[in-house]
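$ ./design --mode recover --in tokens.txt
reading tokens...
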């Protein structure tokens, strides 16, 4: 089975750039490496429509407590099913079929859990059974959290028009979840080349199934 490497963090933390540079460096050193982008389910607006329709049939108003309880129960399970199918399509089974090398994920299940928790005001996602299932689907061998101040991320991603509050809410969830799940923490303020070297050293030092070409 290929070795899964996952780097997470808020928008503007530098995770996409770092993931790409690590993959290039692994290839330069003779290792099989592939980057898979799983950003298609990072937004959840498409799931709200069917939930709203069902809620109307049950005579629930979207702004009422009843709807929030309903969506809080149904939405996580709907997301698990949607994400599972999306994951298999995007990876084409590489995670299990590829016997060696590294697969670096740009976006993964944790990003979806953070977004879902923020949108549905889920205080502790670890208390939700479907979200706990999702977080282990499958669990990466190398889990890295790239932390950065939201003000810096805001300046880097001004064109995306995310507010500081938007970034701050998500950063708080990343910090809490990554601490609970024992992610290795790196600073997004470090020099990019230093981050690449730190990550490469960690990946190649620990045993894995990643053979050279």
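writing sequence...
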């Amino acid at each position: 089975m290929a070795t899964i490497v996952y780097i997470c963090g808020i928008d503007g933390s530098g995770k996409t750039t770092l993931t790409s540079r690590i993959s290039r460096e692994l290839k330069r050193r003779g290792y099989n490496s592939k980057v898979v982008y799983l950003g298609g389910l990072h937004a959840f607006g498409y799931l709200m429509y069917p939930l709203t329709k069902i809620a109307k049939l049950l005579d629930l108003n979207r702004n009422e407590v009843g709807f929030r309880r309903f969506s809080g129960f149904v939405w996580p399970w709907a997301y698990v099913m949607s994400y599972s199918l999306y994951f298999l399509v995007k990876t084409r089974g590489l995670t299990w079929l590829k016997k060696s090398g590294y697969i670096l994920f740009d976006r993964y299940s944790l990003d979806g859990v953070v977004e879902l928790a923020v949108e549905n005001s889920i205080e502790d996602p670890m208390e939700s059974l479907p979200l706990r299932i999702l977080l282990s689907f499958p669990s990466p061998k190398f889990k890295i959290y790239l932390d950065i101040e939201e003000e810096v991320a805001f300046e880097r991603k001004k064109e995306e028009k995310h507010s500081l509050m938007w970034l701050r809410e998500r950063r708080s969830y990343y910090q809490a979840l990554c601490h609970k799940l024992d992610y290795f923490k790196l600073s997004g303020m470090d020099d990019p080349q230093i981050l690449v070297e730190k990550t490469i050293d960690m990946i190649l030092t620990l045993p894995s199934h990643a053979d050279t070409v």
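exit 0
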